[in-house]
Amino acid sequence: MQQDRIQIPDSVRIAMKTLRREGYEVYLIGGCVRDHLMHVRPHDFDLTTDATPEEMMAVFADYKVIETGIRHGTLTVIVNSMPIEITTYRVDGAYEDNRHPTSVSFTRNLREDAARRDFTMNAIAMDVDGNVRDSFGGCSDIEARLIRAVGDPDVRFEEDALRILRGLRFAAVLGFEIEEATSSALRRKAALLNSISAERIREELFKLICGRYAGQIISGYTDVLGVVLPELLTMKGFDQKNRHHCYDVLTHSLIAMENLSPKPYLRLAGLLHDVGKPRCFTQDASGEGHFYGHAEESEAICDAILSRLKVDSLTKKRVLTLVKYHDVPIAAEEKSARRYLAKLGEENLFDLCLLKRADNLAQSAEWRCRQSEIDALEACIRKVVADGECFSMHSMALSGNDLIALGVPPGKRLGELLRIAFDAVLEGSCENDKDALIGMLKAKKHL
Q1: N or C end: fewer C-beta atoms under 10 angstroms in the chain?
Q2: Nearest-10 crossing angle of helices 249-258, 346-361
Q3: What pLDDT does residue 102 have?
Q4: Number of compact structural domains in the chain
């Protein structure tokens, strides 16, 4: 099958032509071919060849070669400073850990190599001239927008359980439907995800939640994702019984998540900001549901989730800050803006506004009027920032050295005086001027 010639870097083209010149087959394989067929510009270019690792070493004797995974047939060749990963056609042996084959054997048959891959759309090969080798119907599945396992889906997921999350991630990103037999196998084999490392789970989850169709997939496959995020199971179907809400906790959270930019920390905050609600649920005499203390409970649960997934400290701090303050009312006044800029910092405060906006958009229609309040708060924050107002001690006109020069010894008392002066600036009761601040401290008999 002839397709339009794929746009590939010159270095990749050189590597492919070098192998062909020596009589070997070589094809682009996997994501780059899939993206090309979907009219998306490819970025990662993986090659597969019938040349053995030893034969590749001989072919590329004049190039720097890194033995990336030579036992599994993978070498990285450096061509014009570009690393190019090339793998020998192979057949995998038995899988004993639901992730890695215990052995591999090399083959000269491309179809045998394609048979070990996860999904048909990733098993399509293309040569440098645009000729396609499609052994398992991947091209027609792309046209039909279907995710289908290569061969027996149960076997594919038993071999590598991470493929379960990869399938959901592709569906969330591409908007493809998961083919019926593959979908059923995903559910049957979901428990195998318990054998996958936290790092691998996190990597796939981050990509999944940033997908355009993430809400649809998380809602449709909560039972599968519940293996790695069991907290989702308690959220699904939990009726809030509250006039502000027309959705259950999970649906509300998914709508909020999808109203945020596709950045992992923002999407995580949107997904998990109300994760503590089921634990905090109470009803009053009229039957109205309440969730007193749910932000603090959600923060604690998030902390446990992010630790379990081994999320980096910066992302964790950002998510926990947003979850902790998502329900705190902040008045659209310069005094409040200064105080929360001092407490959270500029970036976190603007992100908090984004979460508050998304949270409100996921509530009952009659309560979405709060968007104008958030508009006013954001405008107020921008004005404080643009005016260069003081919202950190570092920008205060009075310093510790100024107080030491007035006879205040270094220590706890010095810090207390600086905090009193800083609070006065934040409250607007004293201008950010050294003499004015000293005068205020003297007037209040602190000096």
Answers
A1: N
A2: 130
A3: 67
A4: 2
In a domain, 243, yes or no: no
- List, for the chain, all residue ranges whose pLDDT scores fall below the cut of 70: 1-5, 93-103
Reading the block at residue 366, the tokens are 């009659």
Q: Are 120 and 54 in contact (CB under 8 A)?
A: no
Q: How far apart are CA 5 and CA 361, in angstroms?
A: 45
In single-letter form, the type of residue at position 157 comes to: F
Cα separations in angstroms, 316 against 214, 223, 303: 21, 25, 8
Q: What is the pLDDT of residue 424?
A: 87
The answer to whether residues 306 and 264 touch, using CB atoms and an 8 Å cutoff, is no
**pTM, full prediction:** 0.87
For residue 390, what are the β-bridge partners?
none
Residues 272-285 pLDDT 10s: 999 999 999 999 99
**CATH code of residue 115:** 3.30.460.10
**Considering the domain boundaries, does residue 321 fall inside one?**
no
| Backbone region of residue 2 per phi and psi (left: phi > 0; alpha: psi in -120 to 50; beta: other values) | beta
Q: Are 95 and 160 in contact (CB under 8 A)?
A: yes
Q: Which residues pair with 131 in a beta bridge?
A: 2
